[in-house]
Structure formats: C-alpha cells, structure tokens
Amino acid sequence: xxxxxxxxxxxxxxxxxxxxxxxxxxxxxxxxxxxxxxxxxxxxxxxxxxxxxxxxxxxxxxxxxxxxxxxxxxxxxxxxxxxxxxxxxxxxxxxxxxxxxxxxxxxxxxxxxxxxxxxxxxxxxxxxxxxxxxxxxxxxxxxxxxxxxxxxxxxxxxxxxxxxxxxxxxxxxxxxxxxxxxxxxxxxxxxxxxxxxxxxxxxxxxxxxxxxxxxxxxxxxxxxxxxxxxxxxxxxxxxxxxxxxxxxxxxxxxxxxxxxxxxxxxxxxxxxxxxxxxxxxxxxxxxxxxxxxxxxxxxxxxxxxxxxxxxxxxxxxxxxxxxxxxx
Length: 327
Known about the structure:
The protein is an alpha+beta fold. The chain is built from nine helices and six strands, in the order ααβαββββαβααααα. The chain has helices spanning 28-39, 68-75, 88-97, 154-159, 186-211, 214-230, 234-266, 271-295, 303-325; strands spanning 78-81, 101-107, 125-134, 139-144, 147-152, 173-177. Strands 1-6-2-3-4-5 form a six-stranded antiparallel beta sheet. The longest helix has 33 residues, at 234-266.
C-alpha cells in the first residue's frame, strides 16, 4: 500500500500557482496534477513538455491534460479509468484506503473552495483528487485547482450522491496508482523530459505542416467568434475566454517554465524559445482585455492586428525550439 508524504498545514501551493504567474490557474485537471505531484515531493515542471502540442480545435484551444504515458514515464504513476459499478462512495473509499488517488468528476456546487464562484450557486463539472476519506465523519481532504482542501457534512453527501450528476449518472473517475512511484534525480528526470518534449514537438510540427499553425487557424476563426459573443452577453465571453485565451496563455507559460528548467538541468540551448513563450503568456492577457472591449462594442474587430504579436512570438519560439532540439 502506498503511503503519502505528510502534507503540511497550511498547505503551500506550488510556485507555478504563485502570485507572480501570469496565469495562476490553467484548467482543473492540470492544476490538480501540479499540486498532486508537488504534494508527492515530485517535480511537476518536468511533466509540462506536452504543452508544446497545444492545438486549435475550431471552437477552443485544447483543454490540455498531462498524458498518462508521460506521468508513467517520468514518475511511475499509472493512470486508468475506475469502473463505477457500485456505490461511488464505497469505491472511492476502497482506493483511498489503498493509498491510491481517485480523480472524480465532481460538481463544484458542493466544493467549499469555489466559494464566490460555483459553491452553492450553480452546478459545474470539475475534477477533484480524493486523498483522505473519513466515511464515519462524512469528511474528505481533496486536491482541486491550485490547492488542497477539506469538505464535510452536506457537501460530502452531495459530492457522492449520484443524483447530483447529470441525469443521475455515475461520474467519470480516473484512478492514479501511486504504488509504482519512482523518484529520480533532476538529471535523470530531465533526460526523460527532453525526449518527451522532442516527441510532442515533432507531433506539433507535423500537424502544423499539414493544417497550418494553431495560432493562424485561431486568428481566422476570431472575427466570427467575436460577432457571436456580441449577440450572447457577458457570460458567453467568460466561457470563451477560458476555453480559448486562458488555455493558450496558460499552456505557453507552463511551456516556458518547462524549457527554463530543462536549460538549467540539461544545458539544452533553450533560452530564446523560453523568452518567446513567456512573452506569449503575457501577450494573451492583453488579448483577453482587447476581446472584452470588442465584445461590448459594435466597431469592426481587427483580429489580425490583435493577434499579430502573439503569432510572431509563437513562430519565433517554435523555430528556436526546433533548432535547439536538433543540436
């Protein structure tokens, strides 16, 4: 049975979620894994090379997630689906007792850490990793977004009630098996991470050659999307900003952090690429403000002008990265 390291109280999130980040929250799955790896005393920055392959899906940038194979290759963590054939509460309890981490599609309506956004106000799907469970007291400790939290009582009952899910269906649950965790030194970790980065970058390059860059496809879609947002109201803008702008900005910031760490650890010549992707992370904040203004305006929106600097920095970063990975 796997035994977790002690988690200090108060919990201190990883620096990727610190005040200095341009995008201190990315998406619920990646944020959760950053904190899970951090709590396991593993280096989450080593896992972020997959962000280089972020794609434009026509209506959003990829809801990017750490690939299961990367987590296995870097840390020995095996990810699979937990078949919820019994009581969700019973099955989560079994896995927590074994020291494993069930990652549950949960309703943020019952998560106290979303107070001020979703908690007790509206229903929205998110991912939580359950680390500690006390069924007698109706209490769990869980990873969610950029932190580690506690819920109990009615929130516990709501979280584990099938009735809380859409149409009463059991939620999707992943099982992270931790008993094979491998602790590597930074040099060994960087050697694996560099190979994974090369693989993901080759996939990105092949896709771009076939379909054009993700950023160019996004820019072509943007005028139509802005026109649609103008007919929908503020909530639609916030949903679009999360799906498009935040995913682009956050992925670029995480990629820059990954490249910076790789350069320091493996001496790979990645400084130029790091600077470009770091610039994109900040430029997307500006783009989000421009889109907010455009969505409330009736003036023609210059999508090419609004995105040209990001497009240039991304192209420059990919060229620098390709050159660095062939040396």
